[in-house]
Amino acid sequence: MESARELGGGAPHAVSDGLRRRLDPPASVREIVARLERAGYETWCVGGAVRDALLGQAHLDWDLATAATPSQVMNVFKRTVPVGVAFGTVGVLDEAGTLHEVTTFRRDVKTDGRHAEVAFGASLDEDLARRDFTINAIAYHPQREELRDPFDGQLDLKRGLVRAVGEPVQRMREDRLRALRGIRFAGRFGFHIEPATWRAIVSSAPHLGSLSGERVQQELVKTMQQVEKPSVSMRWWRESGALRTLLPVIADAPDDRFEALDFLPRGEGDEEPGRTLDRLAMLFFGTDPAAVRPALGALKCSNAQQGWITALAKSEREIGGTVDAVLAERVPTAAEVRRWVAAVGRMRSMSFFGLVSARWHARLAQEPREAVSQRLVELRAMAGHAAFHEPVEVGDLAVTGEDLMRVGVTSGPEVGVMLRRLLNFVLDDPARNQRELLLRRVTVDVHPGRE
Predict the structure, then answer these.
(1) Which of 10, 75, 60, 62 is nearest to 33 (CA)?
(2) What is the DSSP string of 247-290?
(3) Helix (H) or strand (E) segment spanning residue 28
(4) Which of 2, 115, 103, 117 is nearest to 47 (CA)?
């Protein structure tokens, strides 16, 4: 690997008052730095928190890089967690129990695109030289209020540029995940990708199959969580060839499916898991359901995630065309909406109609139709009312299977058939969901001619 001197170098420099206000690690982080420094170990803040602080964005997790080895870090602090000692990382718990990762200065000895063998005893410059992009290779010393930026990462932040540290092809070869990370950073910050770095990403795409499903899934989830408009990132996945390698089942998906991602809001706080799941579901919304579950399995998604996303894809195949056809022409009737909610399932219905709406908004961005926009608003209101205030499932009926057997329905499959028939009757008019009315209807079906 190239040295920092070969790649640009540059001595530490003091920060301005404006930067000092941004670069303000929590007191607990400053205390960790101070204790390591008092013990004789050079220590700097590094990584995403420094980058985000320079951009004026919120930053929560401050990582540290130090000359101390893992065993030395554990000797300095009583409360530690061996997060990844083989790679030099120790988790230090502050007084509040918050974990801060402290990693020994290191250099790569050997990499295979997935794993790296590292050696300790490196300098800060060598440690920064092994990082992926210049904007992530900036260090800050909170005691001396100095920045170390040997690869002009601050300049790239100002220019809005994602640029590899050193030789781009070599950086991608060292860790194939960097191709996806570079795309995510560019999408998250609204940056461009430096041409040589983009070419390296494209050349790395055929090799991305060597990544584990878990790592790909994590990167995809982070993209959905962090990027305001993921359509740009997913377009880069496709244009680079990464999508063809990693998720061929959606490589040829229509553009409006990816553009629809931008109309599904990013979640915050308690909303985040559900909204991230909706964005993931949008990627497969329209794909053959038989192909969806295997693709999600290859990504090591949980069984619950696989079931949810596959069910939405199945509903899209079954009724999506009908829903779209109606919306293109008129406002759906209440009975139509109830039947759609029943087909999708109460708990999935709001996600389903949210995906339908997002896809329509992507289309309407190209060809506005105010009437359709208004219909989408009405549809979602009607669907919400139907799902949570009207009978749309067999369990909502005013009668049970035992009630049906008491009036003569044969036990077994016939009970389920009759319950579904009654639900169909009630979906036309929820006012029909009355015990006596439903039992009379069953009696007539079981004993023709009897009132």
Answers:
(1) 62
(2) -GGGTT--HHHHHGGGGSPPP-GGGHHHHHHHHHHHHTTTS-HH
(3) helix 27-38
(4) 103
Q: Residue 36 in 3-state DSSP?
A: helix
* Cα dihedral: 397, 399, 401, 406 (round 10): -160
CA distances from 371 to 74, 330, 333, 377, 381 (A): 65, 8, 16, 10, 16
Question: What is the pLDDT confidence band of residue 122, given thresholds at 50, 70 and 90?
Answer: confident
Cross-strand partners of 118: 108
Question: How far apart, in whole angstroms, are the C-alpha atoms of residue 188 and residue 266?
Answer: 12
Written as six digits, the tokens of 323 are 């829903």
The answer for residues whose C-beta is within 8 angstroms of residue 76's C-beta and 6 or more apart is: 35, 36, 39, 41, 68
pLDDT of residue 107: 83
pTM equals 0.87
**pLDDT value for 82:** 92
Largest CA distance in the chain: 97
The pLDDT of residue 8: 40
Q: Kindly give the interhelix angle for 321-329 and 370-389, rounded to the nearest 10 degrees.
A: 130
User: CA 427 to CA 404: how far, in whole Å?
Assistant: 19
Q: Return the CA Rg of the chain.
A: 28
DSSP per position, 148-162: E-TT-HHHHHHHTEE
